[in-house]
Structures are given as C-alpha cells and as structure tokens.
Amino acid sequence: MTGGVSSDRNGNTDAVDGEGGAAPKRGPRATLEAIAELVRIPNLFTAPPDVILGAALVAVTGHDPTSVTVGGLAIGSVILYAGGTTLNDAFDAPVDVRHRPDRPIPSGRVSRHTAFGLGFALLALAVGIAFGVAGRPAAVAAGLIAVAVVTYDGLLKGTTAGFLAMGTTRGLNVVLGTTAVGRSVFESPIRLLAVPAAVTGYIAAVTFMAARETEGENRGAVAVAAAGATAAVLTLGWHLVNVGPSVLESGVALAFAAAFCWWVGRPLRAAFADPVPSTVGPAVGACVLGLVLLDAGFAAAAGVGWGVATGAFLVPAVVSSRVIDVT
C-alpha cells in the first residue's frame, strides 16, 4: 500500500535530496509536517476500512471477530500504508526533483536515507503488530503486503505488472482483515474472494490513471479508472445477491454504492472531458478516498454496523486532505 497514485519514473537527475534548492524549514514542527506529508495522512484513513471489510467478510460466514483484534489489525494496516508511501517517495526522489520539487525529500526537509530507513522500519513494525494481535495468518498477510509494496515501489512502478502489484496491496489488505478470526478468506467460500479481487482491480485501474497524470490528453487512462469503478460497483451488486442481506442492510449497501458513484463520477467525468493534470489529479485523489465508500458498501452486507464503521473513516480522510495532498 504505497501512495499508489504516483507518476512513473521518467527523466533523469542526480539531485535527490534537495541540496540545490532553498534552505528548508527546520525545527520539530517542520519535521512533523514533512513526515505527515511523506506518509500521506489523508490516505492513512483509507487503510482501516479495507481491514474492517475483511473482518465483515468472515462475519458473513458466521464467525465473530473481536473489536480489539480488528482494531489491532487496522493499526497495523495504517503502519503498512505509511511505510509504503514513505518508500514510494524514497524510490521516486530522483524524479520528484524534476516533477514534484516541493515533496519532502527533494525539498530537503527529509533526507532520502532517512526515508528509506523509516519506510522499511514501518513495514517490519506492521508485520510484528499483525503477528501479535492475530497470529501467523495475519503476519503472513501483512508480510505479503510488505513484499508487494517494496516490489511495486522499487521495481514495477509504471508497468502493467506494477499496476496489478499496487492493486494487490489493497486486495491483500482486505485479506488481512479476514485473519481477525485466526484464518483468512482463502479458507472461506470461494465467492467471497470476489470482494478483494474487486478492490484489487479498482485500485490497479486508478493507479494506471495516476501514472499518466502529468501526460495530458489521455482520456484512455481516465476511461480505465472509470471502468474499474464500474466493475467494482457491479461486483458489489453480485455480492449482495450472493450473501442475501436483509432489506435494511441491502439499502445501506446500495446507498454507499450510490455515494461512491457520485463521489468518483464527478471528477472522473471532468477529467475525461479535459484530461490535464489539474483535472486528473483531483480525480485520482477522489478515487483513492472513494475506496472508503466502496468498502463500506461491501461491509454493509454483513450488517449496518459494519458498513457505518467502515464508511466513518471518510470524514477524517476528507478533513485531513484539505491540509495535506492525497497524491
């Protein structure tokens, strides 16, 4: 779970730590602000909904995940995401000097060496937390996410395999939530695998659009993201039919689905009409935050409480996104 929404590496430069720019601000507050920007605070709130959704999936099968275990896995998920975004910027520093010189590393507010150390430490900590709260299945799921993160950030970004790797980190994050009962979704009815698969496909499509954010006049990339969103909503409908929730639960799920369509539809439509960075960038950000609504729709099939608990994370994500960029 990296930022998942960064451009691929085009261009060459040797300045990767911002030594050639203006002197960065110093002091504890400036350091905390730089780290908050590095880990993408708004995006962190989109990680727990994946985990809650995973727990909701196993709840549908008759299991009863405890709130303490789900909460612990959610914390681990946030730390995984923070590690991923940190490593994303560390690997991308040479390109960001040219395309995003205001980012923490090229601006000199955080050194590239520090970012690498922090990123890997966060991934290791997250795996340890997962093991501590839910045992080996959770540690395996968290470890797979960490491997996917490093593979995407360091090797595959900008490639077709890279888009799938980014999507896979999110799908595996849903799987992480299923380990709250000491097992994974892979031990549950096979039909439930459609849910993490839908999340994987959606984020892969959004990442494809994000990778072409700076190109301009690329309606095809926006169309791919729109197709990913459409496929995810259709999968949600299929999930409701298969699970058979109550009328109230179905209504809540469909309400979240409608909110998701509205949330991502407006910016995607604007980006398709005029595919320039100033429209594609906001569309990427909306799609990232919109995942919370999609997760909530799926989770509501297990109960209204599951859906509301998942969707509630959109509030802090949106509030913090007004201060710190999502992408």
Automatic annotation (TrEMBL):
Bilayer topology: Multi-pass membrane protein
Compartment(s): Cell membrane
Organism: Natrinema halophilum
Region annotation Disordered: where it falls in the sequence: 1-27
Cited Pfam families: UbiA
CDD domains the record matches: PT_UbiA_1
Coiled coil: none
One GO MF term: transferase activity, transferring alkyl or aryl (other than methyl) groups
Protein name in UniProt: UbiA family prenyltransferase
Transmembrane domains' residue ranges: 115-133, 139-156, 192-210, 222-241, 247-264, 300-319
Assigned keywords, A-Z: Membrane, Transmembrane, Transmembrane helix
UniProt xrefs under InterPro entries: Prenyltransferase_related (IPR050475), UbiA_prenyltransferase (IPR000537), UbiA_sf (IPR044878)
GO cellular component: plasma membrane
Compositionally biased residues, Polar residues: 1-13
